Amino acid sequence: MNISSPVTARDQKEKPNSRVEVTNTEKQLWSLIHSKGLLHSDVRDLYHKICSSYEEIILSDQELTELQDVEYSLWKLHYKHIDEFRKRIQRNYSDWVSKTPAILMLIIRSGVIDSHIEGFKTFLQEAAEFYKELIVKTRSHNGLPKESSICRTSDISAEPKKLQKCQFLCHRFLVCLGDLTRYREPYQKSTVQNPNWSVSATYYLEATMVWPDSGNPQNQLAVLATYVGDEFLALYHCVRSLAVKEPFPDAWNNLILLFDGNRSCSLPFLSREAQFDFLKPSKRSYGQTISVSDHDSSNCKPLKSEHDGWVEANLWPLIIRTLSFFFIKSSLEDFSSTFASTLRGLDMVIAGDDTKLGEMLESYQLIDSARRGPFRALQLVAIFIFTFHNLVNSREIEGKKQIEDAHHLELTQLSLTATFILMGCLVERCLKTNAVLLCPLLPAVLVFVEWLLSIVDIAEEYGVDEKTTSAISYFFAAFVNLLKQLNGKGEVSSHERTALWEDYELRGFAPLAQIHVSLDFSCKHTENSESGIECRADRIIDAAKKIANRSNGCRKWINYDSSGRKFYGEEGNVISERK
Predict the structure, then answer these.
(1) Exposed e or buried b for every residue in 525-561, given b needs 16+ CB within 10 A?
(2) Please, are residues 357 and 392 in contact by the beta-carbon 8 Å criterion?
(3) pTM of the predicted model, to two decimals?
(4) pLDDT 10s digits, 512-526
(5) How far apart are CA 521 and CA 506, in angstroms?
(6) What is the mean pLDDT of the chain?
């Protein structure tokens, strides 16, 4: 018999008792709140006692499933307080709150603030300090050093089971910290007109790195994006909250709400007259040179000096509109003009010099200005990858009528067509960069080609129509030209399997899970997208060689001459042969 068994039995008996005691104490707390109010000292003392009890349970040796329940109960304790504070504040200021946020801002700035608002701010601050200390204690309890990053594990000798528990709990505590600081920010006098969401964003982003499989912090980042009016960034994080092992419960509904909101708006750069020849994607002719939405009654156009910014601001809503066809029931009659308008906007935006291109690809200026890099390109590719995966994975629906199945097939083929044309545009822009290895679009190209290698057979299964084959041929023609410029050896050694900037940014993204299995994420997460440029080039070439050398493909999109170590396109490139 194990000599520790009596202790284990006692611990097992005490665990449920501890939970029951905390639950009973919480009942006392809510009775006290209703009788004495949120700000009474007895209420605060009992609240602190309950927090200490939860902390003791969390720092005891329990299974992860049990700790998940405890952690949720701890957050529920805090959120019930938050909800109660909000109700009481709203009751006291019902006549003001029901008006405009600007009036509330004036009230806060004037100093005429209800004691519940001050109490609310104090509660949020104290709760944040509690969670910060809990992270430190949790790390220490599980054998992790207090001072190093939570997400770095290369120099940590903790037991795998303890490390897993610690990472899960810390990711949840970071999300709670992000929420607490987000709730407090609008009440800060210094930032009431221009809220600073960077602290909350930092907590959420660190949570995504600590526990990449969780959709919760991704959803919270989507919320922040809606605060600053960035629909595209919100869409990206909404997709990320859905395409993970542990999706956020309302992720799909949030996704559809974003598309519905976009559909309800008039887009100035959308023209029903725009045209695009899907059979000749390299020879783009969009019809009208000036496009204004049919629903836009304004004839005002931006000044020439403002033109670039105007086009860029309207590009991202157009991309969302294009994507909406694949998620919301709609007639495909307008898809061609919508896609043509989108592609024209993209061509105009990426036509600038390398400096302007880099600025255009920044994504987090409004919620975390310190976070820099070509995120937009990476996000764009990830969303289109997710769109195709979603259509493929939802095709096997029982009882689907033949006409619905045909429509679904058409949608899937259009998704593939749009994705390859889009990537062809980005690759062509890479070719115009002064230093191709430093092109900010190259990380997105690597993500796409490695993903393509993993699904090329599926792509060919759907790519049997002329539009899709034209799009695929267009992409590979541009891709071969890029490969000729990279001049890498294309042999990826073990040290080159170290995860790059783009791998860390997309870690946990379900469509790339199999690709990430072979990568080493134990090194420090680099925030510089220009690091590892040679490794990036080699990985692109390695993926290209594997695509060229596969034996089960029905069509050779690219070829590789191993003796001359050169790539070249498919022979003839005659699309009309495919009926």
Answers:
(1) eeeebbebbebbbbbbbbbbbbbbeeeeeeeebbebe
(2) no
(3) 0.88
(4) 999 999 998 887 767
(5) 12
(6) 84
**Nearest C-alpha neighbor of 437 from the set 566, 568, 545, 532:** 532
> 68 or 299, which is more confident?
68
Q: Are 225 and 233 in contact (CB under 8 A)?
A: yes
Q: What is the average per-residue pLDDT within 431-443?
A: 94
pLDDT recorded at residue 395: 66
Question: CA neighbours within 13 Å on the CB side: how many for 70?
Answer: 28
Q: What pLDDT shows up at residue 102? A: 60
pLDDT at 136 over 90: yes
Report whether pLDDT(468) > 90: yes
Residue-wise burial string across 326-351, b where 16 or more C-beta atoms lie within 10 A, e elsewhere: bbeeeeeeebbbbbbbbbbbbbebbe
CB 436 within 8 Å of CB 382? no
Q: What whole-number distance in Å separates Cα of residue 246 and Cα of residue 213?
A: 6
Spatial contact of 245 and 213, defined as CB atoms under 8 Å apart: yes
- Using only the alpha carbons of the chain, give its radius of gyration: 27
| Torsion 72-78-79-80 (CA) sign | positive
Q: Which pLDDT band holds residue 152 (cuts at 50, 70, 90)?
A: low
Are 292 and 206 a contacting pair, CB within 8 Å?
A: no
Query: What does the pLDDT look like over 300-336, one tens digit per residue?
Result: 444 344 455 667 788 999 999 999 999 998 889 999 9
Report residue 253: phi and psi, to 5°. Answer: -60, -40
Q: Is the pLDDT of residue 298 over 90?
A: no
How far apart are alpha carbons 171 and 165 in whole angstroms?
Answer: 10
Cα dihedral sign, 297-303-309-315: positive
- Which residue in 157, 120, 132, 127 sits closest to 142, CA to CA? 157
Cα separation of 6 and 12, whole Å? Answer: 10
| Integer Cα distance of 419 and 391 in angstroms | 13
Sign (positive/negative) of CA torsion 547, 550, 553, 556?
A: positive
Q: At what angle do helices 216-227 and 160-184 cross, to 10 degrees?
A: 20
Is residue 219 pLDDT above 90, yes or no? Answer: yes
Distance CA 87, CA 2 (A): 54
* Token couple for 524: 């420090």
- 331: DSSP letter: -
